[in-house]
Design a protein that fits this description.
Elements: H1 3-16, H2 27-32, E1 36-39, E2 43-44, H3 51-56, H4 60-65, E3 69-70, H5 73-82, H6 88-93, H7 96-103, E4 107-120, E5 125-137, E6 143-153, H8 161-177, H9 181-193
Parallel strand pairs: 1-3, 1-4, 2-4
Antiparallel strand pairs: 4-5, 5-6
Length: 223
């Protein structure tokens, strides 16, 4: 057989033989059975010094909406500062059991801001946020869940011609001056915690607690 005839067959095999992505395992989460989550100050890898404070205001609601009690983040921040943990990096490096012991929490959620920036390129500004999430058990320190999520936004130009060019310049300047970080952060949090998907099952304060893990009627078995 000609090698040229083999190429389509090999391509089909590569597409059909690609390994299926393994589903997330929630065994440790189910065994730990946390009811409350301590959200600690975030580590900031961006150059925006205000990013942690802005981001921290976006995270409690989506976590609570998954059915877990969330300790007030500003109170948590103050208590940690009084305990000598004023730097977020120190908090993330501390023993999770110690952190949870300070508040009587079942678990702790760590978030790292990987990106929080607005870049101007050829008459447009692209706003990007990117986060890493790690949820740990407050008794054992084991990782219960993790995710990585990013979002970008680029405003549309105003059309063609000179008017469109002027509109593009204005839109880019306005976006650069006041980037839409908060809506993007909320979208990223929602996407990271969506279930089924990259997120986690409902907690004890939602009606579907423990029931959303059962396969839906007629659903094919996991391979």
């Amino acid at each position: 057989m000609s090698r040229w005839l083999l190429l389509p067959a090999l391509a089909l095999c590569a597409a059909g033989c690609a390994p299926r992505k393994a589903p997330k395992s929630y065994d440790k989460l189910l065994a730990a059975n946390p009811r409350s989550i301590l959200i600690v100050p975030v580590v900031n890898k961006s150059v925006d010094v205000d990013a942690p404070a802005y981001f921290l205001s976006t995270i409690p609601v989506p976590v609570a909406e998954r059915g877990y009690y969330v300790f007030p983040v500003n109170m948590v921040k103050r208590v940690l500062e009084d305990d000598g943990l004023s730097d977020a990096s120190l908090v993330h490096a501390a023993d999770p059991t110690r952190l949870c012991g300070l508040f009587g929490a079942d678990s702790v959620l760590y978030v790292t801001i990987e990106r929080w920036d607005a870049k101007y390129v050829v008459l447009s500004t692209t706003v990007t946020v990117e986060f890493s999430y790690v949820w740990k058990d407050g008794k054992t320190g084991e990782i219960l869940w993790g995710a990585h999520q990013g979002m970008t936004y680029t405003p549309q130009s105003g059309g063609g011609g000179l008017g469109g060019l002027i509109a593009a310049v204005i839109n880019a300047a306005m976006t650069k001056a006041a980037p839409s970080y908060m809506p993007l952060a909320r979208q990223a949090n929602g996407a990271a915690m969506a279930y089924p998907g990259p997120g986690f099952p409902a907690g004890p304060y939602r009606q579907e607690y423990r029931r959303d893990l059962a396969p839906k009627p007629g659903a094919p078995p996991e391979k």
